[in-house]
Amino acid sequence: MTPAAFEYHRPGSIADAVRLLGSLGPDAKLLAGGHSLLPMMKLRFAQPSHLIDLGRIADLRGIAQVGNEIHIGAMTTEHELLHSPLLADKLPLLVEGAGQISDPQVRYKGTIGGDIAHGDPGNDHPALMIALDAWFVLTGPKGERTVKADGYFIGLYSTQAQPDEILTKIRVPIPAAGTGWAYRKLKRKTGDFATAAAAVLLTMNGASVARASIALTNVGPTPLKARAAETHLVGKRLDDATVAEAARLAMDVCDPTPDQRGDAAYKKAMAGEMTRRALLAAQARAKP
Known about the structure:
With about 290 residues, this protein is α+β, with helices and mostly antiparallel strands.
């Protein structure tokens, strides 16, 4: 099928995009990489009257260190994340996650901001951002505001962003030196969404866990923070029993929807297994 008729707009600045979004109203949609919106338009599940293409806005791209944070423009592509020396050094968890998103063709066009803004719990960046304690910069007619990733996703395809706001930047605090990381993802085939996935950051104090951050992909209506599992790990050695209990506690927060990837019980079990694998991989990478 082909999309319904629409008017195409290509602003050259963030300010122009915000003005267009405000003036055109709810019938306007933002176009980033297009991998979610365009298929919906072709099937006529989405029929915007106006399409605002963000591709020409240079201020929406780039990766830079600012103090103790990494700032990433929302239109930065997965390919750029994957091949950034700065991210490889400072945020290797993000690089590992980007490498597991779909396939190379999608990664050349898909953007980190589009992945986040869509609010799909099956997308990978939401859980990665929660595990990394990231903040999102939203720009609207009243200026900028910053929202923490943990709490930004409020329901299926629903976020704290207002209809007249654009996600313009992601701010990620640089983890402490020696922090271990891992993103473990189960999927049926290349290009598929996760059946379940777990993002982990782990800081060790000798043989014991000083801090743990665990977030889960596609096992609830939003990405999930496994808080009880994190709390359980602090101060303990990562032996088999401790890791197994953390995986069980991660499973307890899951509320997956049955689909072609499996029933709810299977998805919960796989969330626990991905948590277990991610914890062990992060431990192996951590430096006390």
